[in-house]
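User: Let's play a game. I give you a shape written as tokens, and you guess the letters that built it. Ready? Here's round one.
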């Protein structure tokens, strides 16, 4: 780069700025490679620019001392031009890329995606048919199409999540456990990440829809307590206390955000392993597992990040579930769902929760004792007699300890409830002083009742409102009494796959009953938890995993990804608690200020 051969000064310097070695492995698993390709990118800099930067560099002297480049000229003692330029360092990038033709993997993922979509479309129609059975109607309308789409999103997101996890684990095992170079990790996968992002969106939609469904459920508190007699000086019965019903409603409000797992604890443990113990180094593109920090210069692979993080998510959450439900709740304490049923029994209160217009759950809490509004000594005496076997079983219809049921209400009772709701709405409009107009009977779904439904204000109930509440209570008492001697066991698809029987041929005109009767199936105690956030935790768990994967593969930052997922969890819990509280107060006619 000299302009004059005999001159001492150079005009420019050329150097290798980027050196990249590309090696492709043969696809025949012969542990051989194709002819390597070396790509060198050169750059040039004028010496005038280098001299200017060099004179302004305060570390020039120290760099010269460390590099030992202080050769002096023969007479002047000054550094030569070339030696002086050697003291200035430039950024040079070197990289090596090993690749392999992975079209077979992409083709297999494409075929898997097509098969999953086809199978899920069919299974969604099957679930929609079961939903239509629960609705006691086989008309294929817009609501059925919406339900089919939700089922499709649920099935597709679940299968895509399982496919992404299994595929990442298989690729991880093949890549990290090879003695010779046979397998390479794809830099990216079109179909794998398409399944990941589709699963995130679909599962998020399912979670939102099911939370809204829970927050619009019909909840009825049945008080079985009888009056203790007639007042001596007044021509009236002894009033029944409202505090038992209020207490049960308050406990139910607290349980609406009951969880089947502990998200914050699981997130902290996963983050501890990934970043605190440096297990995220397993996701680096080194063909052997290593926790050493020496290889930290190697980049991470997105699919390997999914494999490592997914393993800890599943292992830690699964381990916590086994410890909690198979050890803690079995040998140490009682599960909250079962404890709540016992609380209903001693309070003489039952619950009917309808997640759909004609389908839901019944928690039988009718007391086997004469009264529940009693003193502490009488309460202890009742429990003692029950423990000694001197009292009948708590279950409905003589069933030993069976207190939870799956209920299908008839058309007659459903229409009666709609009419009662319409009367309650008119009474509420009168209490607000507004214009009372015609109210359409039917189910009205709401999304933000805790914001738009006069939150925090005192609700005053008129005599007509309380009378309607008593009528609803009597209607459900008659329904339970009518089904007490005709309880049905679950069997077959209904028992193992939660596929409902054909209610049309058990209830209604097809069964010779024009008005429709109410059908009660014996159920496990934990199934009524589907009304709570407890029943959504499987979908929420998958949604959090998929959300973490999608964010982490984009940001390559486990801390930020986990914080975002935790913020989403806080939003879900807040909305489910507040909207569920507003719905509980509106359906049970209790003042929301009693819900602590």
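Assistant: Ready! My guess for every position:
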């Amino acid at each position: 780069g000299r302009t004059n051969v005999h001159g001492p000064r150079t005009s420019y310097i050329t150097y290798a700025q980027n050196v990249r070695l590309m090696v492709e492995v043969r696809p025949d698993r012969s542990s051989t490679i194709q002819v390597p390709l070396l790509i060198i990118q050169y750059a040039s800099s004028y010496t005038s620019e280098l001299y200017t930067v060099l004179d302004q560099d305060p570390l020039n002297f120290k760099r010269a001392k460390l590099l030992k480049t202080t050769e002096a000229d023969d007479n002047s003692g000054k550094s030569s031009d070339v030696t002086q330029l050697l003291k200035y360092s430039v950024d040079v990038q070197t990289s090596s890329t090993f690749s392999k033709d992975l079209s077979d993997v992409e083709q297999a993922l494409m075929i898997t995606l097509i098969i999953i979509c086809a199978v899920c479309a069919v299974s969604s129609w099957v679930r929609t048919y079961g939903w239509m059975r629960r609705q006691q109607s086989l008309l294929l309308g817009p609501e059925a199409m919406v339900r089919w789409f939700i089922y499709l999103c649920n099935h597709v997101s679940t299968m895509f999540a399982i496919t992404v996890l299994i595929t990442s684990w298989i690729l991880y095992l093949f890549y990290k456990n090879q003695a010779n170079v046979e397998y390479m990790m794809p830099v990216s996968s079109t179909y794998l990440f398409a399944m990941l992002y589709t699963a995130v969106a679909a599962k998020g939609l399912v979670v939102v829809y099911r939370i809204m469904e829970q927050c619009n459920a019909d909840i009825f508190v049945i008080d079985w307590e009888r009056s203790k007699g007639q007042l001596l000086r007044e021509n009236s019965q002894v009033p029944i206390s409202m505090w038992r019903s209020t207490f049960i409603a308050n406990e139910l409000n607290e349980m609406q955000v009951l969880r089947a797992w502990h998200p914050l604890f699981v997130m902290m443990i996963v983050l501890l392993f990934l970043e605190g113990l440096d297990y995220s180094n397993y996701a680096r593109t080194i063909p052997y597992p290593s926790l050493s920090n020496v290889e930290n210069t190697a980049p991470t692979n997105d699919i390997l990040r999914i494999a490592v993080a997914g393993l800890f998510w599943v292992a830690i959450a699964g381990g916590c579930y086994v410890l909690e439900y198979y050890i803690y709740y079995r040998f140490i304490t009682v599960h909250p769902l079962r404890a709540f049923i016992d609380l209903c029994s001693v309070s003489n209160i039952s619950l009917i929760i309808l997640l759909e217009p004609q389908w839901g759950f019944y928690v039988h809490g009718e007391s086997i004792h004469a009264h529940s509004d009693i003193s502490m000594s009488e309460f202890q005496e009742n429990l003692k007699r029950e423990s000694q076997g001197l009292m009948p079983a708590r279950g409905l219809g003589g069933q030993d300890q069976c207190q939870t049921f799956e209920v299908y209400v008839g058309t007659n009772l459903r229409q009666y409830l709609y009419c009662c709701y319409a009367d309650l709405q008119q009474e509420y409009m009168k209490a607000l002083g507004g214009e009372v107009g015609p109210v359409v009977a039917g189910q009205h779904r709401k999304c933000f009742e805790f914001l738009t439904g006069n939150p925090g204000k005192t609700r005053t109930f008129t005599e007509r409102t309380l009378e309607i509440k008593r009528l609803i209570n009597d209607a459900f008492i008659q329904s339970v009494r009518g089904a007490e001697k005709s309880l049905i066991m679950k069997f077959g698809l209904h028992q193992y796959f939660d596929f409902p029987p054909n209610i049309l041929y058990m209830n209604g005109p097809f069964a010779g009953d024009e008005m429709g009767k109410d059908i009660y199936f014996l159920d496990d105690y934990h199934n009524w938890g589907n009304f709570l956030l407890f029943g959504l935790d499987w979908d929420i768990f998958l949604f959090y995993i998929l959300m973490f994967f999608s964010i982490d593969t984009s940001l390559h930052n486990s801390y930020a990804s986990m914080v975002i997922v935790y913020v989403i969890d806080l939003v879900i819990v807040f909305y489910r608690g507040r909207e569920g509280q507003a719905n509980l107060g509106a359906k049970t006619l209790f003042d929301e200020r009693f819900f602590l």
